[in-house]
Write a structure and sequence with these properties.
Elements (H helix, E strand, L loop, with lengths): L9 H11 L6 H8 L3 H10 L12 H15 L9 H4 L5 H22 L10 H19 L7 H16 L2 H39 L6
């Protein structure tokens, strides 16, 4: 779906923003560039690098920012808050290159299916807060020690960002269903993993009773 004349899809806004900065780009630069669209767009831009499977801990900072911002929006905030130390943090050119080459094409594909800038049926404030709550839970999942399982919640966060920007009520409830499925899948994976780990520890201790003395 395409946007009307004079309006750009989120992937193009992000590409234009990161393309203007030839030297350095900070988190604060992105927030200022996105203005009134900052919540939806920052949900997308922070989740983009997380769509690439990562070892535990690598995506903690962007996931933590997503958690803070989604919690802030859920409470009714309208201006993104970010600590100065993080706001001044430079985004590396290597990460920008990965976003441009790998993550933005994925965002553009999602937009073709889910984005329609011409919709006039705006989401209610309560529905936007519900979307933000889902983003908060997905970002928490990313922060958990789940190796290479960050892609699923990251894609859902991107879809939630599109939901807020597009004010698409149908997409909201589709994404809420995806969020519940992701919570169930990753939660069950963690449960099974912890059970296996406890069994391994128990077997090891039984095989080495001297450690129990």
């Amino acid at each position: 779906m395409s946007c009307p004349s004079g309006s750009k899809p989120p992937s193009q806004i992000i590409r234009d923003t990161i393309g203007k900065k030839k030297s350095t780009l900070t988190v604060e630069d992105l927030i200022n560039a996105f203005g009134s669209q900052s919540f939806g767009l920052m949900f997308i831009v922070m989740a983009l690098p997380l769509t690439i499977p990562l070892p535990p801990g690598i995506g903690f900072i962007p996931a933590a920012l997503l958690c803070v911002w989604s919690f802030q929006r859920m409470l009714g905030g309208t201006t993104l808050w970010v600590p100065k130390a993080i706001g001044k943090r430079e985004i590396s050119q290597s990460l920008i290159s990965k976003i441009d080459a790998k993550a933005l094409p994925l965002c553009a594909r999602l937009e073709r299916y889910f984005l329609n800038c011409g919709r006039l049926n705006l989401l209610k404030e309560s529905e936007i807060r519900l979307s933000s709550l889902a983003v908060m839970f997905m970002s928490m999942l990313i922060m958990l020690p789940t190796p290479f399982l960050n892609t699923i919640p990251a894609i859902i966060i991107i879809l939630m960002g599109l939901t807020i920007l597009n004010s698409n009520r149908r997409l909201l409830w589709i994404n809420m269903s995806f969020s519940l499925l992701a919570l169930g899948f990753i939660g069950s994976t963690l449960y099974v993993g912890s059970e296996l780990l406890l069994d391994e520890i128990s077997d090891f201790l039984q095989a080495n009773p001297i450690l129990l003395d």
